[in-house]
Amino acid sequence: MHGPAMAGWLLVALCAAAGGYCLLRLRSSVDEQRSTAGGEALMGFGMAAMAVPAAVLAPPEWVWLVYAAVFGGAALHALVTARRTAYHSHHPHHVLGLLAMAYMAGSMAAAPEGTHAMHTAGGAPLATGVLLVYYAGYVLWAGARLLPLPAMAGPEGGATVAVGWGDRTELAVACRLSMGVATLAMLLTL
Asked: What SS3 state is found at 160?
């Protein structure tokens, strides 16, 4: 329990678990569940890789540029896909999340070795502040959505329908909430 290292490992575990569940959602029979599950899995595993404490693995500067390019490309792909497919309420959030990841990776690439990007800019840039406000609001909103939902009634009047793990909307919301919390934590350390 040495402060930031322990928090980093907790973020790694949280993001890897969220990425793993998003991979499970790719097998869902519900189109809405599959529509962004791959991109969310990429975000979860990418966030896990970015959260590994620097004392354990200090990546070279070029790795941050690769992260920025991968997340920027994924954001562009998600934006194009969102424009071509039916609109889902989480598409804008998904695109913003990928752009936030590209922004954080770019900030880390621009920072001198051994420092955080915030220390070199003399404070938090406007983009970081806007993302912090957005993600704080998103975490509160998504947390409120996890309130208990009524049971789904089946076609036989009153019988409940068994729902597969990849189709459970409350788990998808919990997954997005956990990644929102992780993004908020990563933005705070930027």
From this structure: strand
| Residue 70 pLDDT | 93
Cβ neighbours, 10 Å, residue 151: 10
Which residues does 161 contact at the CB level (< 8 Å), separation at least 6?
Answer: 152, 153, 154
- Conformation bin of residue 186: beta by default, left when phi > 0, alpha when psi is -120 to 50: alpha
pLDDT tens digits for range 24-38: 888 877 776 777 788
pTM, entire model: 0.77
Q: How far apart are CA 15 and CA 49, in angstroms?
A: 9
CB atoms within 10 A of CB 27: 13
What pLDDT does residue 68 have? 93
- C-alpha 37: how far from its chain's center? 11
